[in-house]
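Why predict the complex rather than its parts? Because the way molecules touch one another can change local conformation, and only a joint prediction can capture that. The input here totals 752 residues.
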Amino acid sequence: MSIGFKIESSDGAARVAKVTTHHGNYMTPAFMPVGTAATVKGMTPEALSRCGVQVLLANTYHLMLRPGAGRVARLGGVGKMMSWPGPVLTDSGGYQVMSLAKLRNLSEEGVDFQSHIDGDRYMLSPEKSVSLQHDLNSTITMVLDECTPFPASENEAATSMRLSMRWAKRCKQKYSTRPGYGIFGIVQGGMYPDLRAESVESLLEVNFDGYAIGGLAVGEGAQLMRDITAHTVSLLPTHKPRYLMGVGRPVDLVEAAAAGCDMFDCVLPTRSGRNGQCFTSRGVVNIRNSRHKDDPRSLDETCSCPTCLGYSRAYLHHLIQAKEMLGGVLLTWHNLFHYQTVMADIRSAIGSGQMQKFREDFARCQLQGDIDPPED
Amino acid sequence: MSIGFKIESSDGAARVAKVTTHHGNYMTPAFMPVGTAATVKGMTPEALSRCGVQVLLANTYHLMLRPGAGRVARLGGVGKMMSWPGPVLTDSGGYQVMSLAKLRNLSEEGVDFQSHIDGDRYMLSPEKSVSLQHDLNSTITMVLDECTPFPASENEAATSMRLSMRWAKRCKQKYSTRPGYGIFGIVQGGMYPDLRAESVESLLEVNFDGYAIGGLAVGEGAQLMRDITAHTVSLLPTHKPRYLMGVGRPVDLVEAAAAGCDMFDCVLPTRSGRNGQCFTSRGVVNIRNSRHKDDPRSLDETCSCPTCLGYSRAYLHHLIQAKEMLGGVLLTWHNLFHYQTVMADIRSAIGSGQMQKFREDFARCQLQGDIDPPED
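Output of the joint prediction:
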């Protein structure tokens, strides 16, 4: 029943595991690209596979508004609709309601809101969120929660977290167990270790197929994020997947994997790619910078993605300057390939017991900075 | 020397030929997708190859302004820069100067204009156009001409055509002959058969590697376009390629190939694709139409492109409605694949002496109209 999670090797708190699902398997630590409206912007599913992507995230909020969860259901679910053969995790919709919708009204029942697309009113309750994700045929369903804002007082964080815990229980009750499908709870509690502990305890009582760490990467800074992550991970069971939501930069993924997190998602590689920001083995490169305009070299000489194998910095600079679609496509491709390569390197380092050395090497490479510009 | 043109079979005026160039070969009748700024919008060169594309067109006007012809030259030419291994034909820049640039001033010398990007002033003369195309390392250079507007009086058309003929001669004088490269003259003369004949005579005196028919598809209507095309073709030598510029719809290509034209270019499949207009075996389908929103069927059941094999009309409708990049990518892919399939079918019909039957069957299929919408 549910999804499978088999640890294959570990190194300190970090582990490599195989997740088995109704829609195929994936290895963790895993990075999930964000396919908001049932498409990772500009990428075909074939291109995603060629990047090494094994599991995707899609946004329930966007899909419930357009094309509508019922329509997605009639087309066989989000994976079938978009021609992605692998597993798909959907978020609950709660985060986007709070960040995108208008006239939100949060109550014990759920969130009443107005669509940012056509102004129609909707109600997103825990039961409704689970039902929508069922319609989407999501491999992994996420519980509806409130992402506690930062900063929040201990009282505010406690009130918000306890509401999320009551919602989590209602989500689990509504959820239909199916072989190869799963539902994850989400730990909240802001930056308060005791509240994080209380939240974990509540979720363990309900019993989920995996546990996500929410409410981070909200402006608290890298050190506090790492502390709260490590603290929360230490309270979670080892035999279930741990998903650090909305994180982050490659170096954050390395650190979180070292702390024992298994799954990640972030818009950074895709959104940045469309804006000309590239993640490389030597840190971030902004291809818009005029230093690249005559540079015949590849973006990252250590990378074997189609973008680095086929195109010069000068051409990529030209495409982004000319606002050509292909610029966004090629840089998204590179960034996702880079992220997947980092994840594969993490798995390999854990497998060979070299995670500590890998962390040090990775951080040093990232700080090197870009190669010198060509001479005039 | 120059490019090779070997006729392999013919059927009436129509012929199948192999063009050999420094950058590889292509079979005619051939359709060249438009890669304005050294990119066919949203398509990788690999995707173009998978559509069956063998030769591309790029726009000298756009490339001279951005990234600049000198920069393209330092990157090895337009093909090398964009990672396209095959032949590239460049236009002269004249057409875009007249349609896009500001403050144009046409004289015997050439066209003085202001860039639509940054307002800088440029001079495009016949010599400058050839020199720019040399910098771009264009496989086939086009002469600078003035595209005679429609309608034009016989006097206006004659004056304009004779200027173009003087320019054509200057272009040929400036052009450096290189093995596997070629330069094409362009027949003008508006809708006046005698002026077309005079124009052909002028160009034949100069002697070009191929002859283009310009000044059509400017609003004169399908019948007049066909008449002027057939008339002009009848005056051109059989042993050199004939290129009908800026044409057109699939049915126009079939008719023009039947009349003896060998090469074509048009923005229609790419620009329309981004707007949701799809060319199919049963005519044009507008995927924005709400009749497609629940349709699980492919765009064209007779098409084997990745879009038709992998995605439903409902999903394509969703992508275009949600303004997702992938919508433009997938529909461009389909349209280019469809165009290349039509060209392959034309070559096959000519090869088997079935061109007349093919024209009739093709026209009948195009008039069928789209399949019925699914029942509610």
